[in-house]
Automatic annotation (TrEMBL):
The chain crosses the membrane at residues 30-49, 107-124, 130-152, 159-177, 189-220, 227-248, 281-300, 312-332, 338-358, 365-387, 393-410. It comes from Pontibacter diazotrophicus. It comes from the Bacteria. Keywords: Membrane, Transmembrane, Transmembrane helix. The keyword Transmembrane helix applies. This is Uncharacterized protein. Coiled coil: none annotated.
Amino acid sequence: MLTQLTSTRQQPPLSESENTTSFFVNHGSIPWATVTWIFIALGVFLRVFHFFDNRSLWIDEIYLASSLVKMDFMQLASPPLEYEQKAPIGFLWMVRLAVMVFGKGEMALRLFPLICGIASLFAFRSVARFFLKPVGVAVALGMLALAPPLVYHAVEVKQYGSAVLATTLALLLYTRYHGKFTMPHLLSWGIWGAILVWFSYAVIFILAGMAFGVCLTYLLKKNWKALFYSVIPFSMWLVSFAINFFMLTYKHAESEWLVHWFRIRESFMPFPPSSAEDFKWFFAQVFLILDYPLGLLWNFSTLHTGSKLLETLLRVPVIPVAFLATGLLVLFRNNKTTFMVLLFPVCLALLASGLELYPFYERLVVFLAPALILIIALGTQKIAALFPAHAGWQYIIPFLILLAPLHASARQVHNTELFGGRKHWHLRDALLYVHERAKEQDVVYISWNALPEYRYYKEVYGFKFKVIEGKDVRLTSKNASEYLRNLEPDFKAMASYNRAWLVLNKIMGANIGEIEAPNDVFGQEIKDGKRIVKKLSTMGKQVDAYKSTDMDVFLFDFPNN
């Protein structure tokens, strides 16, 4: 598909004066095409590096992987998945195929996301060349290649990386087929777009926004023939989406707990906005989306340049906001169709958010990254062109927007513990610590909130150690003391062995599907494990420990046995 789509390049959609003269030819000697390929190579390197670094799965990956390693193709197409997980059937089947060929380990599960992440870079080059001059293409590929969230999702066992590829391919289809009204072109556009909705839930926003933008253009121009022909591929997308929705997606309708989870994180647009606080939400989203998924904001705690003025400018998102605003203005003035095609998907996602149908939140807006990157890159090239040819800023500006993601990605290569941020967990490391040290006579107590990761990794590594699965006594415990009393049978079972391991998850305070209770006894007083360790220390002697940000392991000797 990529070969077919990238083989033909149309004239860029902006005005003739904006696109026929190369920035490279007129304004300097930087070989922007070479810079573009350097960024693509860096993007491939980052994704492959973190793929082979092979960090532990984090809990969301565990939840989805639990189904992928056990269910066959038909079971994956017949919800529910374990732990109330949701993912497009195309993504599930491709990952399942990798599991069947390469096994149940993390790298097999992450292979398809990796392929999608690398393919996105090459496909996006063709998209960017359609919309931008060489300097803009280089900036756009730099953002896509270096943004830490986009690198992360390219090596995560979730569907968000494939959603980026789906968006990129949808835009590539637009550059290939828009304005061509022969039946082969119309049917090809319709078929390829119809396939995409089976690999990404969110791509429907891209396709629908594209369809609205194109149709509105023809409607305003009263070009009825073009409007009629355009309905052919757009209706094919709609039919495919409807089939997918009624066969599969509606069975994944959002549960009350999940809506609540996103609501308390302010992931739904205030609709209609009725207060100053509501309007602040929109400004906050600009800041948040520049940070995630675009990775254009600096990490405050690591920013030390020696210049307070420079640090202030970099910490406040003046530069990315200015480039974004400039890009929107240039698009609106020069090509309103492109403006609508790139911006309408954002508007539709916001509208769905306001109706509480789709959260506007972090990983769920990753699919918007290619469109937003194009807008920011366009603004960058426009601002750079304002400076005289001999001015150094003309070359500094295109790279200024890339400093933050380049710095962050370099730090994450140097220290892989930083990769993924709060999603960098150590579930496998904790369990392997026990696996490598446990004796045949030992017993391992797995706390109730660490059972999903234990069950997955047992499937992968074939753990043989004896296990006591911890009871969840939260609902029958009014306070911390009662919680510990209710666990007395578990403690006594551990103490009946000479040596017992304790495996604690310090992050998870609720089971999947539960509505969070921030003030519950477990979350406030038990989850960190200190009370449990203190209790067991009165019964035996702690002789070993493994500690991380999310998982703790303790070994106790009970000498009276």
